[in-house]
């Protein structure tokens, strides 16, 4: 999608569709029944206000978030159409909401065959923040997962113009950065969307390599021999059961002029299909386990964005990619494995495989000199029990690191919630035959999984993102299609930028 910024007046812009927001200026809370909403178009352009005046006065518009109204030949405007999108209460309106409205605009317009539009940035939000939110949200809305449908329409918006006042050069830069981030998020979603027969560890590694050569990153891919030679016993224990060879993908971004430290390590779970292994999963819903490589795909997409945005900080992206299959070669419950770090692991459940591949991924990142670690993984069903589909789980062994991440996360407009990592939970993964077990029983499953990873991050500042409930949209929303969400990429890119 091409992105443009203009400071011209909305009234004067020739476009297929002008999109403006309708906000409720009244003080009533949204469930205050008796209070009438005071609906106003969020723009200082009087002609746009007048063009919408009759409709807003008619009582036909509720002003509730995500409501859309389309006017043809709006009076006095050069635009062919005026799309009004309601954003709810003006008082509570934020750039988080703005992202969703931009996505809604894209999905509304592209379904009608419209290819270009202009979006009026609401004056109440700082212009650069608004430009970012609109461009990122528009990209999120532009993605559809129906690749293999013969009737795929492949409707896409080709160009979005943001109308915002201010320093045009600075706003153009904001739009450009947001485009890179939005495209990278959709690149990640492309990878996650593919089924496991079309996204094996080998194919994932090829896609990473291709991307790296396009954006100028170093990329190394190691196969079974090297994984065994490096004594990655935890990673290999998962890979050994599959006929598809595993891949350890290592992407390096080292810009000229970056300090020797910090070195950020982004480690992703890349299970291209999770059957559960010998502790096999029930058939119902198993098809969704093609998205068990979402954490890995997020790191590949994040590295793409970093390479294009060029912050002055060294970053290493690591993806541990393998299938988790049952077979005559597969590991069995009760087996003891020795991780790369030397720690011994008693396998209780072969379906707790994500933490095994990440154990070696995190340790390897430290070996490569990473001073700060972030991992992303569709790690546990338990995080979905704890937080549902709205928030990803965040874990941290270091408060400074957490605070920095939280800041990046709120700028990126993604919902995440911190969960604890107290020492008490460690008892649940104590083993009588080995150093630790790979499962911690029924209670606090997302936490005991994170406690397991903590054993391999040790004293390196580390953040763990459990995106099992958020990496896949169970239903479509007005601003986003059903399917891969690309969650965490924007927060990761903001986080990396915060070190530059
Ligand atoms: N990939 C799954 C977690 C998952 C669940 C991702 C739902 C997306 C949606 C993970 O490998 C897994 O199987 N975890 C087990 C761990 C258990 C055996 C301790 C789980 O959560 O049930
Ligand atoms: Mn599993
Ligand atoms: Zn898994």
Task: Note the main attributes of this structure.
21% strand, 20 strands, 500 residues, elongated, alpha/beta, 7-stranded mixed β-sheet, single chain, binds zinc ion, binds ligand BES, binds manganese (II) ion
User: What shape does the CA trace take?
Assistant: elongated
Structural class: alpha/beta
| Residue share in helix | 25-40%
- List the ions, cofactors and other small molecules found in this model: ligand BES, manganese (II) ion, zinc ion
Could you tell me the mean pLDDT? 97
The count of DSSP E runs of length 2 or more, i.e. the number of strands, is 20
In percent, how much strand structure appears in the residues? Answer: 15-25%
Number of helices: 13
Q: If you compute it from the alpha carbons, what radius of gyration comes out, rounded to the nearest whole angstrom?
A: 24 Å
Low-confidence runs:
none
Strand ordering within the main sheet: 8-9-11-10-14-18-15-16
Question: Main β-sheet, in a few words?
Answer: 8 strands, mixed
- Terminal CA distance: 27 Å
Summarize the structure in words.
By secondary structure, the chain is an alpha/beta fold. 34% of the residues lie in helices and 21% in strands. It is built from 13 helices and 20 strands. Helix 8 (294-309) links the parallel strand 10 and strand 11 (314-324). Helix 5 packs parallel to helix 8 and helix 7 (233-239) runs antiparallel to helix 9. The structure holds ligand BES, manganese (II) ion and zinc ion. Manganese (II) ion is lined by residues 274, 276, 324, 351, 353.
